[in-house]
Hints:
The protein has 12 helices and 14 strands. The protein is an alpha/beta fold. Among the domains are: about 70 residues, no CATH class; about 25 residues, no CATH class. The two termini are about 30 Å apart. The relative contact order is 0.13.
Amino acid sequence: MTPVTPAKVAPPTGPLPSALTAGWIFPTCAQCGQTAGESALKVPHPDAPGGMSHVWKCAGCGLRRLQPRPGPDIIGHYYQQETGYNAFEGRRRSARAQVVWDFLRDSFSRPRDARLSTQLAGFAAAPLARWLFDINVRIDGRHGMRVLEVGSGYGDILMYLQSRGCKVLGTDLSPSAAAKAGENGVEVRVGNLVDLHLPGESFDAAIMSHSLEHVPDPNAELRELHRILAPGGLLHIAVPNGAAVRLDTDGREWMHLSHPYHFWYFDPDNLVAMIRKHGFEPLAPPQTTTRHHALGLWRAELRACGIVPATRRLLRFLRGSLSNPQGGDVLRLVCRRVQSVPLG
């Protein structure tokens, strides 16, 4: 799913707040089922009961979740352009920027028809692609590789993979996103993954790029992905890091908070525990990345709030980064579908 551009929380247009408030729910932990925990961050919202929700840290396993959150009857209201959601706007890169974007993708993916110059330059460009893109799918010259993206938005990465010989399919809850993808020749089906009843073992790779945190039940999503992927198929996941240093230093202004769209904030440990529960095994330990340079953010905050608050936040970020090497903003994991789901 294309990440939501964060904005300051404002009362959404549409139904009266009182009608929306009744639709907010108090979920249990998706990992261990507990309700007990503590607030890691208070997040005001005019529709939430009492005007307040929380990033709630589970007392049992530490998984952070939004508590309370919009329930199934009202969540669609927040996925509208009027409320700041923008995953269906389509590509906004210039033609020149798109050429560079595709070149960097090729340097990592290694499509079969990549030119020799691209293959040679890829040795230098691939590390940049690994840092720049949250999801990198290795094609390695295969033709007809079957790729599914859950929460694909308008299908940006699917457009690239299809142009390199892959057979692609996206899913999204937004009809507008599916329509935009269709304009670019990519099929995106509207609905929850479980409800689409895709054939079993029918894909070689699956992508959840900033979408697992949006789903009401990550367990149902991962169970279905295990059924849909072929044995040995790869699942590529990118989510906001629940252990991010900036979640602590920036609080409600953290760019990946995306309230109230994000329901779950996985850290490296509980993300690995979650995927193993559903028959996946990491290819390597999870990685975290932060693309927004600390000094660049300091300069922006300097203009917004002055030198003293900006410098204090910068120092807190640097101290936190030294003590938490896995404290990047985004958590990435590539895992393989094993033959069977572990019992218990």
